[in-house]
Specification:
The complex is a heterodimer.
Chain A lengths: L1 H10 L13 H21 L4 H17 L9 H32 L7 H16 L2 H12 L3 H25 L3 H9 L4 H35 L8 H9 L3 H29 L1
Chain B lengths: L2 E4 L2 E4 L4 H27 L3 H5 L1 H12 L11 H29 L10 H14 L2 H12 L3 H25 L3 H9 L4 H35 L7 H10 L3 H29 L1
Antiparallel strand pairs in B: 1-2
Chain lengths: 273, 271
Amino acid sequence: MSGVSTELETLLGTRWKKPPLIKLSWLRWLLILGGAVYLVLAIASVEVNWSRVYEGLDRGGAFIMSFTRPDFLSRGGDIWNGLVESVVITVAASVVGILISIPIGLGAARNIAPLPVYLVCRAIVAVSRALQEIIVAILLVAIFGFGPLAGFLTLSFATIGFLSKLLAEDIEAMDRVQAEAIRATGARWTQWINYGVQPQVMPRLIGLSMYRLDINFRESAILGLVGAGGIGATLNTAFDRYEFDTAAAILLVIIGIVMALEYLSGVIRARVR
Amino acid sequence: MPVREIAGAKVWRRRTTGEAMLRWVGWLIGVAIFVWCWQQISASTTWFFVWDAPRIAGDIIDRATPPRWSYMEKLWWPIWDTINIATLGTLIALVLAVPVAFLAARNTTPSTWIIRPVALFIIVASRSINSLIWALLLIAIIGPGVFAGILAIAIRSVGFCAKLLYEAIEEIDETQVEAITATGASRWQVMVYGIVPQIMPAFAGISVFRWDINIRESTVLGLVGAGGIGLQLSGSLNTLAWPQVSLILLVILLAVVISEWVSAKVRGAII
């Protein structure tokens, strides 16, 4: 007890201070100092052409104003075609991506797959996650030529990495008891997966699929920048020609669809839970 | 329990006949939509190029190996730029995201009817548009360069950070806030002593997580002219300098792996 009372006595009369986020004081000061040095160097190395920025403010204002009067009509045909292509790519890539990522997700779960299968599937997931969509799209456009096929393959590939990893993590975290009960009835491997594993991970799989559909649509909007189809090409042209009214219209359409998809996925996720 | 009689014996079924039919129709519609989408893609594809693809891919790999290592000396500066775009962009985004998050969280927003929907709209608008598109827009407005890249990353990250942060704020322990309020603290003091300490770990985690994503995104911003290593990538692609392209892709891959490792380590230390 004497230890406590002396600690209390030393604290008496001193002001209380908030405990810092990082406890080690030398590490805290090192981080603060390093951060400050880095910030000075970084900001000094960024060249900003302020006169150019100042000139651009008018255009920035014009762009923001154009959101109040978006022009859906004068390039209506282009917007519609681009949009349909984006949606088509999104749907097809999501379906194919999900179908392929289910077996890979099963293979990447350590508790149901043998080690060689596990390693192969994890390698596929790692490769798919490390390469960004836009770089994959550039390479695929170079290989397959311009058009939505490259975009479709890009998004399918990206979906596999995302979905397989999360599905595998979910399978690894499942309740073993239920799966074992099914196995005890003498079920085959496929029956075991179908009745023991699938019901446990299905709600999350549906939720993740909806989320990925949402991501795929957002990504499909930029694939057009490198020639892989979708609404990105229309948007790029609109910016290049300073047709901000049309660009604003396209951006509003994208935001609207993303919001609708988010709402839809919220409803579906709430229902399957 | 749905049961079906087959030859006098009762056999357990997973679904009733009606349910099974409904599912069947649903699947049919789904498959029909997929087939239609595939036809659309197929119609606008030049299949001759696709059948030729293995040869082209082999050709590209042939040209791209070995990477031109001597090009590395021209890449150090773009790499530094790329890191700056990601880091400064993340910092600006965090500064902007904190007030937005406090306005969007149900328990700290000053008005649920007016300010909260505005804050939520800012979050959705920022999140639904890719940083490449933000970069395109900013380049049209303030000209190409690193600055446009930083702003593009910042605008894109505000929504992400604010969303995760306001969810963290909504999950705080209200009893601590009440304890601080009971001491007679002002609104700001409640925020500093009651709310901030609780969301600090989440805040640090979100920052590092977003920084990791931003390193990824900033490597390709140069494709549209917003500075960083992507500028070299698009230049090399346009001149068909495949050995340079393969070197740049290797550098990008390495940067992504390192940043993911750093972010995982830091988040592991915080949580």
